[in-house]
Amino acid sequence: MSKEDAPPPYTDATNGLFQASTKPSFCSNCGSKLASTLCSACGLYAATAPAPETIQTQPGIGFSPSTVTPMTHQPQHEFTGGPSTSGLEFYKIFNDRLIIDFEKVSCLPCQTVGIFDQNLRSCPDPLKQKGITDAKWQKWMEDLMEVQKKAPSVLGCLTIFCFPGFIPQSLLCALCCPTSSSHALDCLPCFYGDWYRGLIKWMDTVNMELNKLEMHAKLLTYKPHQRAPKSMFHGQRVTGKDGNYEMSFLAIGLNKAASEKLISESWDHGVNDGCLSGHGRIL
């Protein structure tokens, strides 16, 4: 038996309890054993293929390393059943409807109003699969937050509903003042008509593109909040809130059937604001 055909050497390991086999390198072109960088079988200068993993054997088991097939690592299938770790994760899907938290107003100056920061940058995966890019989504969200600058402010709420008449003033304004309607003075902080017009224009712009993909976006409001879908930030939003809290969302139908249902659905899920101050509301 020549030296080259001799079986590979074995070395003792772990105090003789196990033995390990050392395998030679093989040609990456034809798989023949390499003695140098020039393969004697195919005649090519080939990169050395990595040797099979070292196989440990225990004496007396009754098999040799040559009879064991090395395990190979199969590529993992891409997971498409939910949000990816690189995309937007701060949304939930109910009945083919994407639900994204939208805090329309706040009585606290430090509280987030509009879309949460986590939702501004990356497009949700279901929309990406339809061709909406991160850049397009971010532009839509920036435009929506620009409209939110016209939302009711703490100062505006205090001015029209609380100060200086408090409860009598609040009742008078709710029953007699067109707070939410579109009129010549709706640009003032105590009126909200320009805000609602901005939200309608934003939805129309977004839906011009979404409708082509059999999707549709709409802002919805629930009252009481216990009836609302459990969104990603549900627990954070309802903390300290009573039954008067109105919980709003940006909802997007993800297919034709879900979009048609959303189009026919009212924004009002229990608000029932029949006062004059509520005329013109869309959220």
Task: Kindly list the characteristics that best describe this protein.
six-stranded mixed β-sheet, 2 domains, 11 strands, alpha+beta, three-stranded antiparallel β-sheet, 25% helix, 283 residues
Describe this structure as you would to a colleague:
By secondary structure, the chain is α+β, with helices and mostly antiparallel strands. It has two domains: 9-63, no CATH class; 92-278, no CATH class. It is built from seven helices and eleven strands. Strands 6, 7, 8, 9, 10 and 11 form a six-stranded mixed beta sheet that branches. Strands 1-2-5 form a three-stranded antiparallel beta sheet, with no helix packed on it. Strands 3-4 form a two-stranded antiparallel ribbon. Strand 6 and strand 7 (97-103) form a beta hairpin. Helix 2 packs antiparallel against helix 5. The radius of gyration is 33 Å and the shape is elongated.
Helix content: 10-25%
Terminus-to-terminus distance: 89 Å
Order of helices and strands: EEEEEEEEHHHHHEHEHE
- Mean pLDDT rating: 73
Number of strands: 11
Shape: elongated
Low-pLDDT sequence parts: 10-23, 45-88
The computed structural class is alpha+beta
Radius of gyration equals 33 Å
What number of domains?
2
Strand content: 5-15%
Largest beta-sheet characterization: 6 strands, mixed
Given the structure, what is the number of helices?
7
Q: Could you write a compact summary of the structure shown?
A:
This protein is an alpha+beta fold. It contains 7 helices and 11 strands.
